[in-house]
Amino acid sequence: MSELTAPLVRPGIVGLIGTWPQSRFWLFCVDLYPALAAASLAWSTTAVSVFMVLWILAVLPTIRWQAFSEALRAPASFLPLAFVALAVAGLFWTEDGWPVAIQGLVPVSKLLVIPLLLYHYERSQCGHWVLFAFVASCALLMGVSWVTYFADWKPSPGGLAGVPVRNYIDQSHEFALCLFVMAPLILSFATKGNRAWTFAFAAVMVGFYFDMRYVATSRTAYVYFPVLLILFAAKYLNRRRAIYLLIFAAVVEFAVLFTSPYMRDRVGRTVEDYKVDRDTSAAASNGPTSTATATSNGLRLAYWRVSIKSISEAPVFGHGTGSTLQLFSREAEGKSGEWANIIRNPHNQTLYVAIQWGLLGCLVLYAMWYFQLQLFRGSCFASWIGLVIVVQNFISSLFNSHLFDFHEGWIYVLGVGVAGGIVRSRATPVAAKSVVRLNGPDGKTSQAKFD
Fold it and tell me: 249: how many CB neighbours lie within 10 A of its CB?
């Protein structure tokens, strides 16, 4: 039978399905889902979970496993996996039952996504989608925040006007991140003489700042905000301009303090909390009491004292995954009021890790922070984004457990994964750039590279 009369062999269903991960639509979805997850962060936990699960299912068939295994040699990639592996191992020495232990594993499991994001965005050209989606979503939230603030609308009886969704801690965390991410862009536009974009971005950034000072913000933001400001000045300005910026920022902060009732009340209540806690800490530390006043600072210090005592009982390997719930449940027995609240989170990332996995867990945690911070030492814009995300998470985790919290934890995972992948693509241009072979007029093959 000649080739002309040979029957046409069509690929079977299995072969057809096997080609889907190479289709344009599939690859488009692989880039789209993280951007949708980033856009959803400010509004919905369910949407974030759905989009990230869909992304994992979509990205797995596109992975070249040999290249992925080589990428895992980098500490920024394999340390998150080591952290999750330690949490899984901790299931076998925990004092709690398996259901409670599994609940303790869930907050850590999101770290598994970091190596996948680093690998994908080292090869993708669409990392900026995630950034734009997140900033645009937060800008929309900021607009809604101002509308609800002036309308004095509260989402619930115990809610705050100006905090339309979630809570003021998450909202201020997002706004502060967006503010410092946009700062270099404004500087770049101003340097190039692009007034339209300069004023547009500056207006949005000022909206973020005043929302944090006049509407709602967390006390943790007062700690990391000046640190991030100093980092920006040191990275992008010469010494003279950096000093001018810091002086100007101090003047603005004092002016806001005198003109913002919210900020004055926030600072005043913080000082008052410390005074109350100083007078009642002895009663609170001696066990159940109905006379000790429960303040935010007092509760946090009490949680820290209990945590340190628990860590001293198992300093090397900890009490196992999920053990914090049992610890604070015992501590709440016989108490009344807010002292009787049963929590899982000691409001400090290091203590949270040390209770469950001891010194070994702390070594993995700090090694992960360190090597992921080292990933962003460069001068590109993606390095600045990653630097802000890691520093913000580290400082806020001194007073919270933001690496394990859903909202701040996913900001960290998406931010480090996407920004880190972009940074790696610049460091390894051969692996990061798409190479298209073109036939020139002379018949020879040339290469066109697209950044």
Answer: 15
